[in-house]
């Protein structure tokens, strides 16, 4: 009985989170209406106009850049550690990777602000600007979507890598051996036997990484430039959902602004919870052992 | 059919690419650690650990109140979060095979993915609004809420390692089920659970976002639970985004202190875990 009460504490905590978020953010959301809140691209505190679109856009762009950069590196790293490297390398490398996961996000922000941003300002962004792509235009100020995306990529790398490693370990050795026995090279065995089998799990790992990127606050706040605008260029400063909450919540000028910020929090909460539920279900299905054999 | 040479070449190239991924992952880590250590050490002095922040332009000053504040807030978080988290974990391991257990386990997994800034809003609504002021208590509540799901999951895994025979021996002696859980099973798993708690504390000590509008910050000493309280992480943030060079230097030094704190906790946890399984 005592135990059941303690166990139910987790459910109570979840219920409290939902109830409190609804209490603070709900009225403001209900007043504006979800759709007009989401599609309004103006965030002007002085006029009490609160639209969520710049933040949603910024969150999606930075997380997208982060995934684009982190996914190939994480999967490559996971493949290297599980399929290619000798066991000794694996045990040596697993420590720094776990270290990467344990560094507080404000320290990543510090590094991003004083190392990455100057590096982007010169020489990286001027070099990228030579490609004349619309996403690489404008003044190379360093602070912006690109900087935030890169910092996020570094931060979600250990998340995706560790789950991908876990998933790759569930691939039965017989599949790999069958491919090798048919004359496949090691890479061909990975491509034709290992990766198709692990695909679902790697998608799950990616979604968990994405969930982390969407909600990451400090590091992004410090390097994104904090400007509630929507720009196509990755060089431009932007804003994300968690960043605007971090910057404005403590100093919100009135109940309306607090309500709007909490409504942004509610949106972020809903999205990350849905993403996490989907991802956990996927990863869980893989862990439980597959009923299917990949083609 | 592609030639064998080509296929071998592709194999070699892909292996090289994957090895390159390792390098790409390690470069930022090395750069970050090197800078935190080198730039952080430059500003470290005895003063840094014993005095409160100095105003802009004045030399000296430290983060003593922020170090104390972090420990204080994390302490409050432990008081609330550890019993709940560990209790829930024991429940999951002992009684968690039914549908309720499944629901709790899944909820804990999903909750551990909720952004910490969201938890900050919750603690704000729960503590700051009714009290009408920012406080160490609010920060502690935020960190406690963050601790519960992870602690529940790790405790469950550790308690499941306790042999069935111990549990059965206790039950056979007529001890009630929950007493068995608490004084036989939990005690056996205690070393492991301490490890889990230390890791949770290390994680909580590194959190910034949930403290921004709960514990806020404070330039002076404070050990009252109902007052705004400094923390290392928030102090690093404020120093870093300030326009002053000497505050930037302090941010690096404070970051070094924070990494040392978090690193020591994680290392202690690892050592504890190793001794247990020897």
Verbal overview:
The complex is a heterodimer of chains A (295) and B (278). By secondary structure, chain A is mostly helical. Chain A has one domain: MetI-like (MetI-like fold, Orthogonal Bundle). Chain A is 75% helix and 1% strand. Chain A has 11 helices and 2 strands; from the N terminus they run ααββααααααααα. Chain A has helices at 2-32, 34-39, 53-84, 87-102, 105-129, 145-169, 173-181, 186-215, 218-223, 241-248, 255-287, and strands at 43-44, 49-50. A two-stranded antiparallel sheet of chain A has the order 1-2. In chain A, helix 3 crosses helix 10. The longest helix of chain A has 33 residues, at 255-287. Chain A is globular, with a radius of gyration of 22 Å. The termini of chain A are far apart. The model of chain A is unreliable at 291-295 (pLDDT under 50). Chain B has 278 residues and is mainly α. Chain B has 2 domains: 4-43; 64-276, MetI-like (MetI-like fold), CATH 1.10.3720.10. Chain B contains 11 helices and no strands. Chain B has helices at 4-43, 46-50, 64-95, 99-111, 116-131, 136-159, 164-172, 177-188, 190-205, 232-241, 245-276. The longest helix of chain B has 40 residues, at 4-43. The chains are: A mainly alpha (295), B mainly alpha (278). Chains A and B meet through helix 1, helix 3, helix 4, helix 5 and helix 6 of A and helix 1, helix 3, helix 4, helix 5 and helix 6 of B.
């Amino acid at each position: 009985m005592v135990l059941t009460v303690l166990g139910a504490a987790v459910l109570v905590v979840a219920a409290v989170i939902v109830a409190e978020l609804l209490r603070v953010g709900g009225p403001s959301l209900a007043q504006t209406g979800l759709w007009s809140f989401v599609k309004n691209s103006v965030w002007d505190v002085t006029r009490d106009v609160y639209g969520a679109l710049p933040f949603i856009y910024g969150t999606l762009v930075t997380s997208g850049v982060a995934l684009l950069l982190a996914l190939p590196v994480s999967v490559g790293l996971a493949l290297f550690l599980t399929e290619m490297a000798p066991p000794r390398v694996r045990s040596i490398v697993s420590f720094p990777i776990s270290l990467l996961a344990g560094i507080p996000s404000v320290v990543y922000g510090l590094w991003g602000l004083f190392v990455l941003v100057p590096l982007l300002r010169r020489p990286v962004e001027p070099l990228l600007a030579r490609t004349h792509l619309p996403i690489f235009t404008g003044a190379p100020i360093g602070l912006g979507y690109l900087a935030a995306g890169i910092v996020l990529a570094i931060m979600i790398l250990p998340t995706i890598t560790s789950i991908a490693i876990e998933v790759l370990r569930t691939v039965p050795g017989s599949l790999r051996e069958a491919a090798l026995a048919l004359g496949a090279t090691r890479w061909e065995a990975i491509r034709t036997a290992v990766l198709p089998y692990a695909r679902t799990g790697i998608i799950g790992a990616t979604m968990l990484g994405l969930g982390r990127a969407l909600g990451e606050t400090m590091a992004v706040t410090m390097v994104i430039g904090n400007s509630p605008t929507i720009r196509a260029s990755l060089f431009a400063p932007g804003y994300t959902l968690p960043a605007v909450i971090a910057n404005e919540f403590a100093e919100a000028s009135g109940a309306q602004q607090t309500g709007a910020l909490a409504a942004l929090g509610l949106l972020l909460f809903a999205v990350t919870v849905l993403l996490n539920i989907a991802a956990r279900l996927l990863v869980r299905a893989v862990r439980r052992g597959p009923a299917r054999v990949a083609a | 059919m592609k030639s064998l040479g080509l296929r071998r070449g592709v194999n070699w190239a892909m292996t090289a690419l994957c090895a390159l991924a390792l390098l790409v992952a390690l470069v930022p880590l090395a750069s970050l650690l090197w800078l935190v250590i080198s730039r952080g050490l430059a500003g470290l002095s005895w003063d840094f650990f014993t005095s409160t922040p100095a105003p802009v332009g004045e030399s000296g000053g430290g983060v003593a109140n922020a170090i104390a504040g972090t420990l204080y807030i994390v302490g409050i978080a432990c008081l609330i979060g550890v019993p709940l988290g560990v209790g829930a974990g024991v429940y999951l391991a002992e009684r968690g095979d039914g549908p309720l257990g499944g629901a709790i386990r899944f909820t804990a997994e999903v909750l551990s993915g909720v952004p910490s800034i969201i938890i900050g809003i919750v603690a704000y609504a729960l503590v700051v609004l009714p009290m009408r002021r920012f406080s160490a208590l609010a920060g502690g509540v935020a960190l406690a809420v963050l601790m519960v799901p992870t602690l529940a999951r790790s405790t469950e895994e550790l308690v499941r390692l306790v042999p069935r025979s111990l549990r059965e021996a206790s039950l056979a002696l007529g001890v009630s089920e929950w007493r068995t859980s608490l004084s036989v099973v939990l005690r056996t798993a205690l070393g492991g659970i301490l490890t889990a708690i230390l890791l949770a504390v290390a994680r909580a000590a590194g959190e910034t976002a949930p403290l921004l509008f709960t514990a806020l910050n404070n330039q002076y000493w404070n050990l009252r639970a109902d007052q705004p309280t400094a923390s290392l992480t928030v102090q690093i943030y404020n120093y870093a985004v300030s326009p002053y060079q000497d505050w930037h230097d302090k941010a690096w030094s404070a970051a070094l202190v924070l990494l040392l704190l978090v690193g020591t906790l994680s290392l202690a946890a690892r050592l504890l875990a190793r001794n247990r399984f020897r």
